[in-house]
């Protein structure tokens, strides 16, 4: 949603917005991973031997169907990113931006194919030459596989072209090609030229990413800890998606031959092994950056922290925060969404959040040292069952509850000591716990959205409004009109002021509904009178 006077986007804000655009393909990726995990595990020989009833042809047909559907996202991941980025970043005519993303990505690879053909590498290059130039089939086109990084760069370029040309005015004789119709046309020309340059410049990008991967690999078992801690530290600023995408989808997360194809990125390697019938078991070098590393903190640690905060609340206030804690634990354990718990202590005790980040990173290292091999993205109980338990004892899933129980005890003891010793004002600690109890709920969201809008300075103060998984992301005209205390009094878990105009309001898992209702209120608000 765009206001009338958009502020200039800062570099920091741009990276936040870019990370948010990753959520659309990543959400599909998570769902497809579960489909692929269930389908591949229940059709495996080991599971069929254990449960012969699953060998029924009708059941196997269903499992094969699930595997095929689940493999979709991983087969077309780069083009999905190249579509999602201009779609998410465009302020207007989002459909045109998405269409241009597909056009630009396809034309870019066709241009690369032209260059490879003109230089004799295609169509009859030998296997060694093709491998040296990283030539693979991209959307059925023999091209250089630039992976997710190439798709992200292309998506940003296409978004800039869209912003520049979607209102282009041409002379009457050419007016048909103006406006939004000009965007895919200009995109075709520009991305065609960029495609010719890719074979010349891409090897330098690949070397840089490869060097980063070697640096992480040289850290040994501390590599996953650096990644896990870094992801948590970047989360409050909304920048964790950049680091995560780098490890999951580029050479920084590892490179491996799977079923005759070179695969880059920890998650891509895991999913390729999951769908490859010749592969048995999963590579520890890939899974050490994936779901298993989150499980000690997500399944054990944060629930322990929530229980400590509950026990440290005043007895008369515990019933007021019980629902808040329970919903936060469910979101964390079942959905892998941690912010509803993390933002309860992030602002009142940043040092506790630092310890949480370090313990999360240590969980990554612990799982790697123990040889656990559970992949996917979310670190929740669904990943534990689908990618751990259902794939047999080889994943060493049985170690996860043990380590999670240890993390539960450590978090509970650390949080209870810190809250009591330093008198931290976690929910329910004040004599008046109105900040922890729901304010008058309005509408189906359970939030007083009109009051939240008023605390943001009203519709006339909001320049742009969007959301990610748990937060409202806003640009405002005047930050001084934003009442942080009022936002928290109406169930906002936290408020992050990025700069003089951009802020984030942490809502929780109902943020999409809150954003939709707020947009409706803004559209229905009367326009300010001119003059």
Keywords:
single chain; 531 residues; alpha+beta; Gyrase A, domain 2; four-stranded antiparallel beta sheet; two-stranded antiparallel ribbon; 22 helices; 60% helix
Distance between the termini: 25 Å
The neighbouring-strand order within the major sheet is 5-6-8-7
What class, by secondary structure content?
alpha+beta
Number of domains: 3
Largest sheet composition: 4 strands, antiparallel
Helix content: 55-70%
SSE run: HHHHHHHEEHHHHEEHHHHHHHHHEEHEEH
Mean pLDDT: 84
- What form results from the Cα inertia axes? globular
| Low-pLDDT residue intervals, each spanning 5 or more residues | 1-7, 433-440
For the CA atoms, what is the radius of gyration?
25 Å
Strand proportion, as a percent range, falls in 5-15%
Number of strands: 8
How many DSSP H or I helices? 22
In words, what does this structure look like?
- The longest helix is centred in the middle third of the chain and has 37 residues, at 182-218.
- Helix 14 packs antiparallel against helix 17 and helix 17 packs antiparallel against helix 19 (399-421).
- 60% of the residues lie in helices and 7% in strands.
- The protein is an alpha+beta fold.
- It has 3 domains: 11-236, no CATH class; 285-421, no CATH class; 449-524, Glucose permease domain IIB (Gyrase A, domain 2), CATH 3.30.1360.60.
- It has helices at 11-21, 23-42, 45-50, 57-75, 77-89, 94-118, 127-132, 147-165, 182-218, 222-234, 240-249, 266-275, 284-287, 291-312, 318-335, 339-345, 350-370, 381-388, 399-421, 449-455, 484-489, 511-524; strands at 135-138, 141-144, 255-258, 261-264, 462-467, 471-476, 494-497, 502-506.
- Strands 5-6-8-7 form a 4-stranded antiparallel beta sheet, with helices on both faces.
- The chain contains 22 helices and 8 strands.
């Amino acid at each position: 949603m765009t206001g009338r006077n958009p502020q200039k986007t800062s570099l920091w804000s741009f990276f936040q917005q870019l990370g948010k655009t990753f959520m659309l393909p990543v959400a599909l990726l998570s769902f497809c991973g579960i489909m692929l995990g269930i389908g591949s595990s229940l059709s495996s020989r080991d599971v069929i031997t254990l449960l012969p009833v699953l060998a029924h042809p009708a059941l196997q047909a269903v499992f094969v169907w699930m595997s095929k559907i689940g493999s979709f996202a991983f087969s077309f991941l780069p083009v999905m990113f190249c579509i999602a980025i201009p779609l998410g970043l465009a302020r207007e005519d989002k459909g045109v931006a998405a269409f241009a993303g597909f056009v630009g990505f396809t034309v870019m690879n066709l241009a690369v194919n032209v260059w490879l053909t003109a230089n004799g590498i295609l169509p009859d290059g030998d296997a060694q030459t093709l491998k040296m130039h990283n030539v693979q089939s991209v959307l059925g086109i023999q091209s250089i596989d630039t992976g997710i990084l190439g798709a992200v760069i292309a998506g940003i370029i296409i978004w800039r072209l869209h912003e520049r040309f979607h209102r282009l005015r041409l002379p009457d004789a050419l007016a048909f090609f103006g406006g939004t119709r000009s965007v895919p046309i200009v995109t075709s020309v520009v991305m065609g030229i960029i495609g010719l340059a890719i074979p010349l410049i891409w090897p330098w990008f690949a070397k840089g990413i490869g060097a980063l991967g070697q640096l992480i690999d040289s850290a040994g078992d501390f590599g996953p800890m650096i990644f896990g801690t870094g992801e948590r530290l970047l989360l409050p600023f909304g920048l964790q998606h950049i680091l995560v995408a780098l490890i999951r989808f580029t050479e920084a997360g590892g490179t491996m031959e799977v079923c005759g194809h070179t695969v880059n990125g920890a998650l891509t390697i895991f999913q390729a092994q999951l769908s490859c019938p010749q592969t048995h078991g999963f590579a520890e070098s890939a899974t050490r950056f994936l779901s298993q590393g989150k499980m000690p903190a997500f399944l054990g640690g944060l629930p322990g922290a929530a229980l400590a905060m509950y026990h440290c609340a005043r007895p008369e206030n515990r019933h007021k925060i019980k629902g808040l804690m329970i919903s936060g634990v469910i979101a964390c354990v079942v959905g892998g969404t941690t912010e509803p718990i993390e933002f309860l202590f992030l602002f009142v005790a940043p040092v506790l959040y630092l310890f949480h980040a370090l313990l999360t990173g240590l969980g990554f290292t612990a799982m790697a040292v123990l040889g656990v091999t559970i992949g996917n993205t979310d670190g929740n109980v669904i990943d534990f069952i689908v990618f751990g338990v259902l794939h047999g004892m080889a994943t060493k899933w049985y170690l996860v509850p043990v380590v999670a129980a240890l993390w539960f005890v450590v978090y509970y003891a650390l949080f209870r000591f810190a809250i009591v010793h330093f008198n931290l004002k976690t929910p329910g600690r004040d004599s008046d716990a109105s900040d922890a109890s729901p304010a008058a709920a309005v509408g189906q969201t359970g939030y007083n959205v009109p009051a939240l809008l008023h605390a943001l300075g009203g519709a006339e103060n909001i320049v742009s409004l969007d959301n990610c998984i748990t937060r409202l992301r806003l640009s405002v005209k005047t930050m001084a009109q934003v009442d942080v205390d009022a936002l928290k009094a109406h169930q906002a878990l936290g408020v992050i002021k990025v700069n003089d105009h951009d802020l984030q309001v942490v809502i929780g898992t109902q943020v999409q509904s809150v954003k939709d209702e707020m947009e409706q209120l803004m559209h229905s608000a009367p326009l300010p009178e001119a003059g």
